[in-house]
Amino acid sequence: MIEIVPRDRPSGLLTAGVPVIAAVASLLLAAIPLAFAGAPIFAAYGQMVTGVFGSLFAFTEMLTRATPLIFTGLAAAVAFRARLWNIGGEGQLYLGAMAAVWVGSGAVDGPAALMIPLVLVAGAVAGGLGMLGPAWLKTRFGADEVVTSLLLNFIILIFVQMMLEGPLKDPMSLGWPQSEPIIDAAALPQLIAKMRLHAGFLLAIAMALVAHVILAMTIWGLQIRAVGENAAAARHAGMPVRRIFLSVAFASGTLAGLAGVSEVAGLKGYLTADLSPGFGYTGIVVAMLAGLSPVGVVFAALFIASVFVGTDSMSRAMGVSSFLADLTVSMSLICVLLGGFFARFRIRRIRREADA
Amino acid sequence: MMDLLQIFLSESFWAASLRIATPLIFGVLGALMCERAGVLNLGIEGIFVAGAMMGWLVTYLTGSLWLGVIAAALAGAFFGLFHAILTVPLGLSQHVSGLGITMFATALMSFTYRTAFPQVSTPPRIEPFRALDIPVLSDLPFLGPVLFQQTALTWLALLMVALVWWLMDRSALGVAIKAVGDNPDAVNAQGLSVYRLRIGAVVAGSALMALGGAFLTMSAFDAFFFGMVNGRGWICIALVIFASWQPGKALLGALLFGMFDALQVRLQTMAGAIVPGQVFLMVPYVLSIIALILAARKADYPRALLQPWFKGQR
User: Fold this and answer.
1) Can you tell me whether residue A346 is helix, strand or coil?
2) Is A274 touching B (CB cutoff 8 A)?
3) What is the pTM of this model?
4) What are the tens digits of pLDDT across the range A303-321?
5) pLDDT value at position A355?
6) H/E/C letters for each residue in A31-94?
7) Which of A44, A88, A99, B279 is the least buried, fewest Cβ under 10 Å from its Cβ?
8) Does residue B309 lie within any of the structural domains?
9) A272 has which bridge partners?
């Protein structure tokens, strides 16, 4: 018989090491599907590394890919800290992107110093409201926010398609369902000439630091953590639990909304219904790999982005399906979950007699 | 108004309602079994994908539809076992594990499909389940087309409603499964294994969910497409709360849902010129949220849902 025994203290070394071990393990596990697909394994890994670190362009592409993941990862991390299950990052991202093209494609005109903050705030508020809804349904009716925020993703995506064929449609787009382009004054500037990396990346890192400071050093942050650890105790201590819950929801949605703004105003320039290949969902993996730490989110997002960009490059070179990246990312989530278990518990073999 | 009446009087409307409800019946029954045992299974969306893909693939390879159905159920059971191990003996977060299973199953199925069929422009097709043709019954007016010209999988779904009802509400095993979702300590005190009951319920429930996915590729369509599950699994998670974890109400909820969905398709063709088509596409998801809001206040969640239980620990 085996028995699961909680450690007296969670193993510090294991807790800190778990994300790294999980990341490495998921990369190693990717060898199985690689072999299954008949690819030369070492050459494939080599191609993945080259695909990320082989040139300045490749490296900046990885940073560009990490940008929305930092935002959505922060959105999930902040919410999960308060035990608010925001699985609606994907929808909130699209709300943010939609708000950004709505105000940023010519409806308002002005200098960049005005336009850039304007699109950011518009997108952030739209994303925030997108999570405030499910959180309010939870506090008002007790409707599970996991399900409502998930289902909203589908509703919002259909709504985007409707807007792109209706009011937001670019009349010059020759029938393609896409929005009018963001005007130059509202576009986030490029960071390096001829590279796609844009100021959204710096904003993402700034938001990670802001989230870290808020969670670690402010009363609001303390309240968020208290509600997440034990809502009943927090209520008993006189904290306005409902208000904290709603405020976290808004903040979390805000971060996901910024991912959408950053993608349209920094990278794509206009909105289409395939703006995000699931950045909202991948943000959950990023947050879990980061152990829900905002600073950790940056590193986790860089790792996940490397997996995507590296696999894309390898997949083009070797004809292996690029779904390998999704597979690796999902395995990293399961590995980090398992790793967290081994940091908190140990498995002890017990003798039969002791069982009776 | 007359048009609406005409819809409700037409055989095809009721036949479509039952057809649309079929995958949801499987899914809600499966989710119900897991949750009654105290385990939320957010892997359902991925398990639908697994059932859809494996059922189709095995049928494509062997030519046997029923082998495909078995393969789908086994695939569901496999991912269910994975989820059960993570959440029951290891007691890990059911939310995160479920989402992980959904991502893993979806990615694994997509990767397998792409690897097996690298360069296909039109997806390979199978000969799907045909509408039943039962002598006399299928020729009945109204009831014939609505009930007796469905495919075998729809009948399997209805059979499963009866089976799950019997299992959960009439058998000793069902009493134990419900008890393990309400008060695992009491079950343990009676000398029953909490782990075995929970793992068993999750594995069986997940196998049922996968049949919902299999219906999509083997009955509703004849091929596998990426994104074809499209949130049906999540809808089941909402419907199971609406059904207050009762098999009979699960059937009712799925049928109501099927009716509304069949209705919106018909309204769409009628009002398509005035209202954008997407408004109708949103209907299923909006309905699920409304169903959840209506049910949430009085929802009587299994009391130990989401709570890990460890042997030898109080």
Assistant:
1) strand
2) no
3) 0.94
4) 999 999 999 999 999 999 9
5) 46
6) HHHHHHCCCCHHHHHHHHHHHHHCCHHHHHHHHHHHHHHHHHHHHHHHHHHCCCCCCCHHHHHH
7) B279
8) no
9) A178
Q: Does B311 fall in a domain?
A: no
Give the angle subtended at the CA of B241 by the CAs of B237 and B242, to the nearest 5°: 110
What separation in angstroms does the CA of A49 have from each of A27, A196, A309, A328, B254?
Answer: 12, 20, 9, 15, 48
SS3 per residue for B30-51: HHHHHHHCCCCCCCHHHHHHHH
pLDDT category of residue B1 using cuts at 50, 70 and 90: low
Domain count, chain B: 1
CA atoms within 13 A on the CB side of A277: 11
What range defines the domain where residue B229 resides?
13-121+128-296
Provide the residue type at B184 as one letter.
P
For residue A106, pLDDT beyond 90: no
Predicted local distance difference test score (pLDDT) of residue B122: 83
Chain pair A-B, CB pairs under 8 angstroms: 136
Task: Among A33, A144, A327, select the one facing B292 at the smallest CB separation.
Answer: A144
- Identify whether B112 is part of a domain: yes
CB atoms within 10 A of CB B281: 20
The whole-number pLDDT of residue B2 equals 64
Q: What is the pLDDT of residue A4?
A: 73
Among chain B residues, the shortest Cα distance to A285 is held by B100
Q: Is B131 helix (H, G, I), strand (E, B) or coil?
A: strand
Q: State the CATH number of the domain containing residue B142.
A: 1.10.3470
Of the candidates B306, B302, B301, the one whose C-alpha atom is nearest the C-alpha of residue B91 is: B306
Model confidence over B69-125: pLDDT tens digits? Answer: 999 999 999 999 999 999 999 999 999 999 999 999 999 999 999 999 987 778 899
Tokens 């034990």 sit on residue: A230
Considering only residues 71 to 110 of chain A, which have any Cβ-Cβ distance to chain B shorter than 8 Å?
85, 87
B305 within domain boundaries: no
Nearest-neighbour CA in chain A from B228: distance (Å): 13
